[in-house]
Amino acid sequence: MKYKYVGQPYNRPDAISKVTGKAVYLDDVRLPDMLHTAVLRPQYAHALILSVDTSVAEKCPGVVKVVTGKDCKFRYGDNIKDLQPMAVTKVRYIGDPVAAVIADTAAHARAALDKIKVEYKPLPVYTDARDAMANDAALIHEDMDDYWRLPTLKQASGTNIANTYHLVKGRGEEGFDEADVIIEQEFNYPLGSCAAIEPHGTIVWFKEDRTIEVWSTTICPFIIREDLAHSYDVPVSDVRVHTPDLGGCFGYKSDVTTEQTIAWIASFVPGRPVKWVGTREEDFTSTLLAHGIRTKMKMGAKKDGTLVAIKSTIYHTGGAYADTAVNVTIASTHNSTGPYEYKHCDLTGYTVYTNTPAVGAYRGYGHQESQIASERMMDLMARKLGMNPLEFRKKNFLSEGKVNAVGETMWKHNGDLLECANRVEKMVFGKPKPAEDEQYVYGRAMVTVMKSPKGAPFSTKGCYMKMNIDGSVNINMGGAEVGQGLRTVIKQVAAEALMIPPEQIRIYTEIDTQYSPYEWQTIGSMFTTQGGRAIIRAAEKLIAQLKNTAAQVLKTDLDYLEYDGEFVYLRNDPTIRVAVPDLARGYITSDGITIGELAQSVSDARLPRYSNPDKNGQGSIGVTYTMGAQGVDLKIEKKSGKVIIDHYYSVFDVGQVINPLQIRGSVLGGVMMSIGAALTEEVVFDKEGRITNPHLFKYHIPTYKEAPVQTIEFVETPDPIGPFGARGIGEHSVIGAAPAILNAIYDAIGVDLFEIPVTPDKVKAALEARKELK
Amino acid sequence: MAERMTLTINGKEQTVDYEPEMMLLDVLREVLNLTGTKHGCDNSTCGTCTVVMDGKATKSCNTPAAKAAGTSIVTVEGLAKGMELHPIQKAISESGAVQCGFCTPGIVMELYGLLETNPDASEVEMTNALNKHLCRCTGYEPIRDGALIAQKMIKETRK
Lengths: 774, 159
Description:
The complex is a heterodimer. By secondary structure, chain A is α+β, with helices and mostly antiparallel strands. In chain A, helix 9 (about 365-385) packs across helix 10, helix 9 runs parallel beside helix 15 (about 735-750) and helix 14 (about 660-680) packs across helix 15 (about 735-750). Chain A starts with 14 loop residues before the first helix and ends with a helix. Chain B is an alpha+beta fold. Chain B has a five-stranded mixed β-sheet with strand order 2-1-5-3-4, sandwiched between helices.
């Protein structure tokens, strides 16, 4: 389908404020009489707090107040209320807030931190789910059974298991009796960081009129508003949360992260705004981490290559508080099948408390963490069956009529995975592979992947649309712009729906819960799909209003009228018409008497019939899927063991490209992040639970020189939910890199690796193993 | 503020008071309220704090404030002339190089430091300059595109 504005490379409206340095990010917000705070982090990752002495710190220059967690009575959390704004009796990870200094400047606040004296009694430390699950492990949350949790979640009392999710399809594990070949293997996708270039920051202001005003690096201002209102017992309407420009998110600025801690601190100096901006170290140690997922997978197939049964066990190092990890575990578990049909599934996910920072969302939300297993297993099984790995995949694709693990039937409109795979196959294997030379050995591979949104049933996105007297339109939504370019998407979808040029449409900039329509949170690659539908609904309502007014002006029945963006006109005689701008605030007749209503509308949209999982762990919990194929050409430097990505390929069926410039940018960036995860990125802990690399010069994210050439294409099988056929694509590009790279390393040197990052030393060891094999 | 120095910021000579432990970045952001220059890490790794000091791209987060005395500093606020963007800003804003935009001021200033003095910079020089900057959004390709367009535009204006 050809559209006028959808599918064109419009430039983003915020590009100019960002190149001129005028975009206002959290740290650029300055408020009257503002104070600054710095937070004390513990020396131990798991310890009882015996005493806190703040007396010396209180006398330091510029210090206004020193705050501790003493007397904090409430817990918070969206899924499990296991969080506290500041440690009260014990610390559970190395970034847990212990105390804070409020001072006139950030430098004064930081300088006084050292003067706070804390006595601890250290406790055993667990940095891996497997250790924390041991029978004799000390409990990280002794009172876990008392915490409020969503009714769908279930803790294992007397253990560190915060939740167990279990899915059964068909006969579950018994289904393996139908398999001719069974393989089993464990994989690891270790803890990482989203590492946006902008660190987290928050400003909270308890005002004298008993309202609370907040600015934060958050993509969920509405959740923060509800959460703070609940904790401080004020109406939700009395909490106002602003999201300024955001310097990247990639997941870890979703959910409530630092806001409750800064609110607790600010509540001690009512009347004055208190600002906190994390250091890079705190961004690693004290906000959300990513991944931390071990997947044990058992796969059964028939001799002809038909998959019959899968058993996955996900061990999730969830961190000291499981509120934000629990849904990552669930998504990782039921999506561990990858884009293949199994008659029988037995999938279990354990979210486990550990003495590490809480894990939260990271672009991909659990999918890459378990699909590293499924995509490696597909290659291992193909090898065992003596089949071409791609032919084996194709035989088992979740294509039209197949049923996925959660019990949803797949339709043609879920996308043409076969076409994606065929294209990538041609890109990767349609050329000769370079032969091993003095310096390098070459490998290549491809994988197929899928992702569901993983939202919540009530998740919705609101839209306010108003037309002005010149026919221009303002659109206000609650979607957080983190870099993905959603304002451009809004503009293009609205232009298409309203049949007016995008230049006539102005999109909101800041989100402010006082003015913005409700949005749950901007997550799960869902803004284009849900937000786009909301825009179309708002546009339809607005056009209906224009027609209503025009029917009175033109003295005719509503259903005889047509709208084309410029005029509302009589279908049988288009010369009888009224210009759209003349209808925008009602129609002013020649004697001044005005008829009709203001052209403005309100709408929202959520996924159709999205549900909670049932007792089998199944349900309408995906609703929309984006599938695709990715491939890699790489070389290994024999001397160093360094893996160099020469070329990376991605083809996804996105339904409809809204903006070719932006969608390419999104995939380019996602691929780069996931190559970082596969090759270099890991948050490393020592035995005491301290992070040994909490800096960007130690936690290596990919640089300019490491960027491979990328070929990116899109298949367009229209989706019936998203606007003009578009479906989500924000996260999908990160899923394939780890298994594709590991499969390509096998192709290069014949050694199977099962965990990332594949650092040079690990590859060097593999090269040695290869020599032994020879 | 215990110390005082005079320096030129975006073409205007100014006398500023600052604390001895401050870095140039703190002077720009906290004393002069020039918030276009960003703070991304704490140890000159990410590059978003880059300004041009006496013609050279310099990371301001680890440049002690005192070192800036008597120098001429250009920040991202100093490039556009009224409504007219500098060619680097124009190219970077149109090539897809901007997503979240947090690394952008540093990249713009890195290119300004390079191309103002050396409009014929080679690809290797360009790569070495841009390799000092971390971007988490774009995968770098659109940044390279923008840098090349900017170079072309600058060369054309100098013909």
